[in-house]
Amino acid sequence: MLDIDPTGILIRYNVKLESELSTDEVARELFPSDVLLSNIVEAVFEGDEDEVIITLKEAVKAGKDPISLIDDALMVGMDIVSQLYDDGLLFLPDVIIASHAMTDGIEYCKEISGKTHECKGTVVSYVVEGDIHDIGKKILTVFLRSNGYDVIDLGSDVPIDEVIIAVLKHRPIMLTGTSLMTTTMYSFMEVNNRLLENDIRIPFVCGGGAVTQDFVMNYELGIYCEDAAMVPKIADMIIKNKNIDELREQFHVH
Ligand code: B12
Fold first, then answer.
1. Residue with the nearest Cα to atom 59 of ligand 1?
2. Ligand 1 atom nearest residue 227's Cα
3. Which atom of ligand 1 lies nearest, measured to the CA of 182?
4. Smallest Cα–Cα separation from 232: which of 158, 145, 167?
5. CATH superfamily, region 121-251
6. 226: closest CA among 158, 139, 124?
7. Which fold has domain 20-113?
8. Which of 72, 96, 185, 254 has the fewest Cβ atoms within 10 angstroms?
């Protein structure tokens, strides 16, 4: 018989056992100090769709801007879930439930934002084929719409042909693409080439977890941006006739 202490093996493979705090306690340490925001964050963390709307309503009633709540609360909640998932403290079903609560929250904020509907320009947005991660893209469309842009949202897992057809049909000022998986992001290059074949030279703004600036620099129309909240600012520059080189100069990290 080998003299092995089994508790040592369990500790190596069970992250929970390594932490003195429970998962809830770890999460709570990451909640914001503002009670109104913290309540929303908690509701996303718990994946409680009803509570997300209740807490959002309370925050808006207290004077918080619904669009800011996306960044300041809903995304904070989802980031905590992502972090704890990456750390092995939460599991895929927890992430799915939280993402549904987050999506309901985004829809609510969009509905009640009541921001201007002047149309500054049309944008086509999509998530690459094979990829269903659409929360970032949903946030992006809310930011663009609340800044006066019409968004043709093609959804997620969108084949290249559909993207090209939509661009030819709607003639947007820019195209945005989201990819969260290293396996799916390569289709951005194909979209870039198909746009050029059709003589369409619009900025193709790409982002999402898997995407990097170095990768996006490989294709002619590509503009990289880490944060969805920056995309309306890019659009504002496009309608001021900034070209792709100027946009890269302004928005890329040098
Ligand atoms: C939520 C989530 C899911 C949910 C998706 C729900 C949904 N409707 O989106 C579910 C549970 C369904 C899921 C499934 C899977 N997932 Co998942 N998922 C995540 C998780 C935990 C969080 C992603 C998220 O929504 N974050 C919150 C949003 C707000 O962030 P975001 O999308 O990154 O968007 C921000 C920026 O990237 C940016 N942005 C986004 N889009 C754009 C676009 C533009 C133009 C710009 C400028 C900016 C921008 O702005 C946003 C904020 O400002 C990540 C882990 C992580 N840490 O990211 C894994 C992760 C993305 N998933 C992963 C994997 C592997 C999968 C699965 C294959 C798991 C499986 N074994 O089945 C499947 C894939 C199914 C498929 N075919 O797509 C991997 C991808 C690994 C890789 N690099 O390739 C990750 C990184 C987890 C990991 N560490 O392994 N997932």
1. 82
2. 53
3. 84
4. 145
5. Cobalamin-binding domain (3.40.50.280)
6. 139
7. 1.10.1240
8. 254
Using the mean position of ligand 1's atoms as its centre, give its distance from the Cα of residue 118 in Å: 32
For tokens 């289709």, the residue is 187
Confidence of residue 13 (pLDDT cuts 50, 70, 90): very low
- What confidence tens digit (pLDDT) does each residue in 129-163 have? 999 999 999 888 878 886 778 999 999 999 999 99
Nearest CA to ligand 1 atom 55: 82
Which of these, 205, 200, 211, lies nearest to 164 by C-alpha position?
200
Domains 20-113 and 121-251 share a fold: no
Which atom of ligand 1 lies closest to the CA of 180? Answer: 61
Instruction: Return the closest-CA partner of residue 98 out of 28, 45, 31, 40.
Output: 45
Q: 151 C-alpha to center of ligand 1: Å?
A: 21
* DSSP string across 100-141: HHHHHHHHHHHHHH-------EEEEEEEBTT----HHHHHHH
Which residues, including other chains, have CB under 8 Å from residue 243's CB and lie 6 or more apart? Answer: none
Q: Enter the tokens of residue 111.
A: 């509905």
Query: Euclidean distance between the first and final Cα of the chain, in Å?
Result: 60
Within its chain, how far is the Cα of 195 from the centroid? 24
pLDDT category of residue 40 using cuts at 50, 70 and 90: very high
Which residue in the block uniquely carries the two structure tokens 């294709």? Answer: 219
**Nearest to residue 163, comparing CAs of 130, 200, 195, 135?**
195
Distance 8 CA to ligand 1 centre (A): 33
